[in-house]
Amino acid sequence: MLVAAAVCPCPPLLVPEVAAGAAPELDAARAACTDAVGVLAAARPDRLVVVGPAEQSGRGPHPQGARGSFRGFGVDLDVRLGRGGDEASTAAERELPPSLAVAAWLLDRTEWSAAPLEGLGVGEPLAAERCFAAGGDIAARGDRVALLVMGDASACRTLKAPGYLDERAAGFDAEVARALGAADVGALKALDAELAYELKAAGRAPWQVLAGAAENADLSGQLLYEDAPYGVGYLVATWS
Protein backbone atom coordinates (compact mmCIF):
# COMPACT_ATOMS: atom_id res chain seq x y z
CA MET A 1 0.00 0.00 0.00
CA LEU A 2 1.24 3.48 -0.83
CA VAL A 3 1.76 5.52 2.34
CA ALA A 4 3.61 8.54 0.93
CA ALA A 5 4.92 10.06 -2.28
CA ALA A 6 7.18 12.91 -3.28
CA VAL A 7 7.19 14.49 -6.73
CA CYS A 8 10.35 16.28 -7.83
CA PRO A 9 11.71 17.68 -11.10
CA CYS A 10 14.66 15.91 -12.68
CA PRO A 11 16.82 18.36 -14.63
CA PRO A 12 20.55 17.62 -14.24
CA LEU A 13 20.84 21.35 -13.44
CA LEU A 14 19.41 20.47 -10.04
CA VAL A 15 22.90 19.13 -9.26
CA PRO A 16 25.06 22.16 -8.37
CA GLU A 17 28.17 20.75 -10.02
CA VAL A 18 26.27 20.52 -13.32
CA ALA A 19 24.67 23.95 -12.98
CA ALA A 20 28.04 25.54 -12.05
CA GLY A 21 27.66 29.33 -11.99
CA ALA A 22 23.88 29.12 -12.41
CA ALA A 23 23.49 26.85 -9.36
CA PRO A 24 21.89 29.48 -7.04
CA GLU A 25 18.97 29.87 -9.46
CA LEU A 26 17.58 26.50 -8.38
CA ASP A 27 18.32 26.76 -4.65
CA ALA A 28 14.59 27.07 -3.84
CA ALA A 29 13.80 23.96 -5.91
CA ARG A 30 16.57 21.99 -4.17
CA ALA A 31 15.29 23.04 -0.75
CA ALA A 32 11.76 21.95 -1.67
CA CYS A 33 13.04 18.59 -2.92
CA THR A 34 14.91 18.08 0.35
CA ASP A 35 11.71 18.80 2.29
CA ALA A 36 9.78 16.38 0.07
CA VAL A 37 12.22 13.54 0.73
CA GLY A 38 11.89 14.31 4.43
CA VAL A 39 8.15 13.64 4.17
CA LEU A 40 8.93 10.22 2.68
CA ALA A 41 11.30 9.38 5.52
CA ALA A 42 8.76 10.52 8.12
CA ALA A 43 6.23 8.05 6.70
CA ARG A 44 8.53 5.19 7.80
CA PRO A 45 8.08 3.10 4.64
CA ASP A 46 9.23 -0.47 4.27
CA ARG A 47 10.39 0.23 0.71
CA LEU A 48 11.02 3.26 -1.51
CA VAL A 49 10.54 3.02 -5.26
CA VAL A 50 12.02 5.79 -7.41
CA VAL A 51 10.28 6.32 -10.75
CA GLY A 52 11.54 8.54 -13.55
CA PRO A 53 11.43 8.98 -17.33
CA ALA A 54 14.01 7.05 -19.32
CA GLU A 55 15.17 6.39 -22.85
CA GLN A 56 15.11 2.80 -24.11
CA SER A 57 18.44 1.78 -22.53
CA GLY A 58 17.42 2.98 -19.07
CA ARG A 59 13.92 1.53 -18.84
CA GLY A 60 12.93 -1.18 -16.43
CA PRO A 61 14.09 -1.90 -12.90
CA HIS A 62 17.33 -0.66 -11.35
CA PRO A 63 18.44 -2.25 -8.06
CA GLN A 64 19.70 -0.49 -4.97
CA GLY A 65 23.32 0.48 -5.51
CA ALA A 66 22.94 0.90 -9.29
CA ARG A 67 25.34 3.46 -10.69
CA GLY A 68 24.71 6.71 -12.50
CA SER A 69 26.91 9.47 -13.84
CA PHE A 70 26.84 13.11 -14.90
CA ARG A 71 29.85 12.74 -17.16
CA GLY A 72 27.59 13.15 -20.17
CA PHE A 73 26.89 16.67 -18.90
CA GLY A 74 30.58 17.54 -18.64
CA VAL A 75 30.94 16.85 -14.92
CA ASP A 76 33.17 14.21 -13.34
CA LEU A 77 30.53 13.07 -10.86
CA ASP A 78 29.23 9.55 -10.24
CA VAL A 79 26.31 8.53 -8.03
CA ARG A 80 24.71 5.34 -6.75
CA LEU A 81 21.03 4.72 -6.12
CA GLY A 82 21.07 4.37 -2.38
CA ARG A 83 23.82 3.20 -0.13
CA GLY A 84 24.89 -0.39 -0.09
CA GLY A 85 24.46 -2.90 -2.85
CA ASP A 86 27.03 -5.45 -3.94
CA GLU A 87 29.98 -3.79 -5.73
CA ALA A 88 30.52 -6.85 -7.91
CA SER A 89 26.88 -7.21 -8.94
CA THR A 90 26.19 -3.50 -9.51
CA ALA A 91 29.30 -3.03 -11.64
CA ALA A 92 27.61 -4.92 -14.47
CA GLU A 93 24.22 -3.22 -14.13
CA ARG A 94 22.92 -0.78 -16.73
CA GLU A 95 23.67 2.84 -15.91
CA LEU A 96 20.87 4.84 -14.35
CA PRO A 97 18.99 7.14 -16.72
CA PRO A 98 19.53 10.86 -15.99
CA SER A 99 16.25 11.20 -14.08
CA LEU A 100 17.20 8.43 -11.66
CA ALA A 101 20.77 9.75 -11.40
CA VAL A 102 19.30 13.06 -10.21
CA ALA A 103 17.17 11.11 -7.72
CA ALA A 104 20.26 9.23 -6.55
CA TRP A 105 22.06 12.54 -6.02
CA LEU A 106 19.06 13.88 -4.06
CA LEU A 107 18.81 10.81 -1.85
CA ASP A 108 22.53 10.93 -1.13
CA ARG A 109 22.28 14.65 -0.34
CA THR A 110 19.53 13.91 2.20
CA GLU A 111 21.36 10.84 3.53
CA TRP A 112 18.44 8.51 2.84
CA SER A 113 18.48 5.50 5.16
CA ALA A 114 14.80 5.09 6.00
CA ALA A 115 14.16 2.01 3.84
CA PRO A 116 15.58 -0.19 1.07
CA LEU A 117 14.98 1.23 -2.37
CA GLU A 118 14.89 0.46 -6.05
CA GLY A 119 14.48 2.43 -9.28
CA LEU A 120 12.15 2.13 -12.25
CA GLY A 121 12.77 3.91 -15.55
CA VAL A 122 9.61 4.37 -17.64
CA GLY A 123 9.38 5.38 -21.28
CA GLU A 124 7.79 8.69 -22.17
CA PRO A 125 5.37 7.00 -24.63
CA LEU A 126 4.15 4.42 -22.09
CA ALA A 127 0.37 4.17 -22.40
CA ALA A 128 -1.66 5.48 -19.51
CA GLU A 129 -3.22 2.11 -18.69
CA ARG A 130 0.21 0.52 -18.45
CA CYS A 131 1.34 3.34 -16.17
CA PHE A 132 -1.64 2.74 -13.88
CA ALA A 133 -0.93 -1.00 -13.83
CA ALA A 134 2.75 -0.41 -13.00
CA GLY A 135 1.73 1.86 -10.14
CA GLY A 136 -0.70 -0.72 -8.81
CA ASP A 137 2.02 -3.36 -8.88
CA ILE A 138 4.36 -1.06 -6.93
CA ALA A 139 1.75 -0.33 -4.26
CA ALA A 140 1.11 -4.06 -3.81
CA ARG A 141 4.75 -4.83 -3.00
CA GLY A 142 4.39 -4.19 0.73
CA ASP A 143 2.31 -2.80 3.54
CA ARG A 144 4.16 0.53 3.56
CA VAL A 145 5.51 1.61 0.18
CA ALA A 146 6.71 5.12 -0.67
CA LEU A 147 7.30 6.64 -4.11
CA LEU A 148 9.81 9.26 -5.25
CA VAL A 149 8.47 10.43 -8.61
CA MET A 150 10.86 12.32 -10.85
CA GLY A 151 9.64 14.31 -13.85
CA ASP A 152 9.43 17.76 -15.40
CA ALA A 153 6.34 19.55 -16.66
CA SER A 154 6.22 21.28 -20.05
CA ALA A 155 9.37 22.55 -21.75
CA CYS A 156 7.51 25.19 -23.77
CA ARG A 157 6.82 28.04 -21.37
CA THR A 158 8.94 30.77 -23.02
CA LEU A 159 10.51 31.65 -26.36
CA LYS A 160 13.89 30.44 -25.08
CA ALA A 161 12.54 27.17 -23.67
CA PRO A 162 13.87 23.90 -25.12
CA GLY A 163 10.55 23.40 -26.95
CA TYR A 164 9.99 27.08 -27.81
CA LEU A 165 6.81 28.86 -26.67
CA ASP A 166 3.54 26.94 -26.79
CA GLU A 167 0.50 28.82 -25.51
CA ARG A 168 -0.96 25.58 -24.14
CA ALA A 169 1.96 24.94 -21.82
CA ALA A 170 1.03 27.28 -18.96
CA GLY A 171 -2.47 25.83 -18.69
CA PHE A 172 -1.20 22.26 -18.81
CA ASP A 173 1.35 22.94 -16.07
CA ALA A 174 -1.22 24.74 -13.93
CA GLU A 175 -3.55 21.73 -14.06
CA VAL A 176 -0.73 19.33 -13.19
CA ALA A 177 0.30 21.58 -10.27
CA ARG A 178 -3.29 21.68 -9.03
CA ALA A 179 -3.65 17.90 -9.32
CA LEU A 180 -0.37 17.22 -7.52
CA GLY A 181 -1.16 19.71 -4.78
CA ALA A 182 -4.60 18.18 -4.24
CA ALA A 183 -3.49 14.53 -4.62
CA ASP A 184 -6.14 14.34 -7.34
CA VAL A 185 -5.67 10.82 -8.72
CA GLY A 186 -8.48 11.21 -11.25
CA ALA A 187 -6.98 14.36 -12.75
CA LEU A 188 -3.59 12.72 -13.16
CA LYS A 189 -5.19 9.71 -14.80
CA ALA A 190 -6.98 12.05 -17.21
CA LEU A 191 -3.82 13.81 -18.43
CA ASP A 192 -3.64 13.94 -22.22
CA ALA A 193 -0.59 11.86 -23.17
CA GLU A 194 -0.43 13.29 -26.69
CA LEU A 195 -0.54 16.88 -25.44
CA ALA A 196 2.09 16.08 -22.82
CA TYR A 197 4.33 14.68 -25.54
CA GLU A 198 3.85 17.76 -27.72
CA LEU A 199 4.73 19.99 -24.75
CA LYS A 200 7.76 17.81 -23.91
CA ALA A 201 6.39 17.13 -20.42
CA ALA A 202 8.59 14.16 -19.48
CA GLY A 203 6.84 13.69 -16.14
CA ARG A 204 3.52 12.52 -17.59
CA ALA A 205 4.22 8.78 -17.42
CA PRO A 206 5.78 8.85 -13.92
CA TRP A 207 2.87 10.96 -12.64
CA GLN A 208 0.43 8.41 -14.02
CA VAL A 209 2.40 5.60 -12.34
CA LEU A 210 1.84 7.57 -9.12
CA ALA A 211 -1.87 7.79 -9.91
CA GLY A 212 -2.03 4.02 -10.28
CA ALA A 213 -0.17 3.46 -7.03
CA ALA A 214 -2.33 5.92 -5.10
CA GLU A 215 -5.68 4.48 -6.11
CA ASN A 216 -7.75 4.06 -2.92
CA ALA A 217 -4.79 5.16 -0.75
CA ASP A 218 -6.67 8.25 0.48
CA LEU A 219 -3.60 10.50 0.62
CA SER A 220 -3.61 14.28 0.92
CA GLY A 221 -1.29 16.49 -1.11
CA GLN A 222 0.74 19.65 -0.73
CA LEU A 223 2.44 21.67 -3.47
CA LEU A 224 5.83 22.85 -2.21
CA TYR A 225 7.28 24.52 -5.31
CA GLU A 226 6.08 25.69 -8.71
CA ASP A 227 8.17 27.67 -11.20
CA ALA A 228 9.41 27.61 -14.78
CA PRO A 229 13.08 28.63 -14.84
CA TYR A 230 14.57 28.29 -18.31
CA GLY A 231 11.05 27.91 -19.66
CA VAL A 232 10.57 24.43 -18.17
CA GLY A 233 7.92 23.69 -15.56
CA TYR A 234 9.36 22.36 -12.30
CA LEU A 235 7.01 21.11 -9.59
CA VAL A 236 7.62 19.69 -6.11
CA ALA A 237 4.77 18.10 -4.17
CA THR A 238 4.19 15.62 -1.38
CA TRP A 239 1.41 13.11 -0.76
CA SER A 240 0.96 11.65 2.69
What does this structure look like?
It is globular, with a radius of gyration of 16 Å. The chain is α/β, with parallel strands linked by helices and 240 residues long. The protein has helices at 16-19, 27-42, 87-91, 98-109, 128-139, 169-182, 185-189, 193-198, 204-214, and strands at 2-8, 47-53, 60-62, 67-69, 78-80, 117-122, 145-150, 221-227, 234-239. The protein contains 9 helices and 9 strands. The protein has a single domain (2-239), classed as 3-Layer(aba) Sandwich (Protocatechuate 4,5-dioxygenase, Chain B), CATH 3.40.830.10. The longest helix has 16 residues, at 27-42. 49% of the residues are buried. The two termini are 12 Å apart. It has a 7-stranded mixed β-sheet, with helices on both faces. 35% of the residues lie in helices and 20% in strands.
- Succession of helices and strands: EHHEEEEHHEHEHHHHEE
Read across the widest sheet, the strand sequence of neighbours is: 3-6-2-7-1-9-8
Instruction: Give the CATH topology.
Output: Protocatechuate 4,5-dioxygenase, Chain B
Gyration radius (Cα, Å) is 16 Å
- The outline comes out as globular
Number of DSSP helical runs: 9
Describe the oligomeric state of these chains in a short phrase.
single chain
